[in-house]
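Structure in, sequence out. Go:
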């Protein structure tokens, strides 16, 4: 397998498939996209990407399966029967191990999962991370070159810990959105309309992320727990709807674990009693 810029077949023209195909094409990787329905083929053409031809199915060296996780095994079996001999099968699913691709004899297998919340094919992948897994040295070289060209930080995730890795990724992306929904609901409880609440809270969340980037988790944390102010935390818990209060309590517990050693003993004891003793 060629180490640099082999032909890539992207299977699936949705958000991630489109984003990978666009990004790779922009960096002069030869890419074609296989979409199996008219709507998908129309999206591929609208993005200015090259639809896959029968020749691409035999000459590409790597097939990136950008399809929903639940259909990866089915699509992998189908593609294994039609792809050229020796073409690598690589899924882009976060939670699945290489076993999801089956065990086609003589075919390299791998995974390439960008840690990026892709909501549109035109979203940039640069500056994010990607989890890579493969037992093939040749395929690993190709996947690492893809990551380098796309400006992605490489993470190598042990297969047996794949679910824990993916759970962490989900918490930092979809979990952040769910957390914001709780924050918006809290402001709604104070009479602030949803649109105004979201507009006010998004810059605040961005500033918290900047603090983490600059100073790490513990030193980037702000709020009443960091100040050891159990009275404010108690007032917050009393003011919130029960479901939002429970989210607040769980996050405050984690905050206390982060900064507890830095608090005065009395403040630590008061917060521990408030948050953990019910």
């Amino acid at each position: 397998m060629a180490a640099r810029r082999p032909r890539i077949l992207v299977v699936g023209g949705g958000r991630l498939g489109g984003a990978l195909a666009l990004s790779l094409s922009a960096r002069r990787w030869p890419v074609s996209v296989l979409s199996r329905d008219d709507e998908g083929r129309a999206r591929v053409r609208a993005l200015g990407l090259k639809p896959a031809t029968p020749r691409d199915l035999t000459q590409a060296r790597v097939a990136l399966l950008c399809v929903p996780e639940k259909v990866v095994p089915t699509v992998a079996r189908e593609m294994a029967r039609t792809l050229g001999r020796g073409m690598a099968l690589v899924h882009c699913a976060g939670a699945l191990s290489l076993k999801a691709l089956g065990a086609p004899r003589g075919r390299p297998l791998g995974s390439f999962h960008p840690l990026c919340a892709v909501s549109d094919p035109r979203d940039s992948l640069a500056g994010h991370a990607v989890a890579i897994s493969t037992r093939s040295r040749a395929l690993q070289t190709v996947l690492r070159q893809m990551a380098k060209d796309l400006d992605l930080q490489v993470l190598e995730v042990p297969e047996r810990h794949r679910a824990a890795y993916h759970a962490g990724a989900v918490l930092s992306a979809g979990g952040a959105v769910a957390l914001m929904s709780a924050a918006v609901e809290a402001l709604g409880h104070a009479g602030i309309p949803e649109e105004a609440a979201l507009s006010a809270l998004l810059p605040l969340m961005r500033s918290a992320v900047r603090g983490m980037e600059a100073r790490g988790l513990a030193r980037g944390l702000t709020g009443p727990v960091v100040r050891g102010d159990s009275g404010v935390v108690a007032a917050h818990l009393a003011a919130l709807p029960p479901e939002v209060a429970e989210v607040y309590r769980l996050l405050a517990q984690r905050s206390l674990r982060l900064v507890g050693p830095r608090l005065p003993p009395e403040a630590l004891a008061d917060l521990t009693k408030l948050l953990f003793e019910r």
